[in-house]
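in:
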């Protein structure tokens, strides 16, 4: 992998990081890439990977604007992750304590996907491409927005 290639590596914020590290390892099979500790031995930052996709866990810090879902009273983002077997990952996450928000199912736009909320309030959509993926602008009925406009496929 080109270390300077464009990648997306979300940073999730927590009041306490260590329980999240253990949850993601158990629920997602995430691997620890890096752990940075505070003077008291607690985890300040963790870098994990999920089937090669890097994501970061960061401790809430006084004087910064970043807050986790507990501090915000909700979340403002859903993390969409493409994986080979979203069904298995959803099952594993739920068995580890995640809550299903949207049951996994196949959609006409070419994805199979489902969404969970982890015990810390972060939302994750696990998905894979299962067919012809829609392109362009599609109306609410699933049809292209104009005869000359974009089409499915």
């Amino acid at each position: 992998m080109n270390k300077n290639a464009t990648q997306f590596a979300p940073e999730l914020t927590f009041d306490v990081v260590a329980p999240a590290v253990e949850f993601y390892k158990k629920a997602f099979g995430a691997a620890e890439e890096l752990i940075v500790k505070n003077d008291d031995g607690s985890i300040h930052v963790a870098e994990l990977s999920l089937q090669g996709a890097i994501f970061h866990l960061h401790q809430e810090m006084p004087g910064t604007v970043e807050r986790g879902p507990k501090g915000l009273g909700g979340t403002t983002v859903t993390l969409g992750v493409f994986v080979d077997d979203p069904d298995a990952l959803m099952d594993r996450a739920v068995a580890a304590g995640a809550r299903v928000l949207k049951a996994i199912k196949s959609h006409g736009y070419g994805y199979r996907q489902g969404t969970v909320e982890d015990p810390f309030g972060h939302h994750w959509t696990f998905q894979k491409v299962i067919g012809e993926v829609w392109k362009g602008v599609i109306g609410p009925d699933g049809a292209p927005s104009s005869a000359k406009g974009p089409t499915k496929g």
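note: Confidence is low (pLDDT under 50) at residues 147-152.
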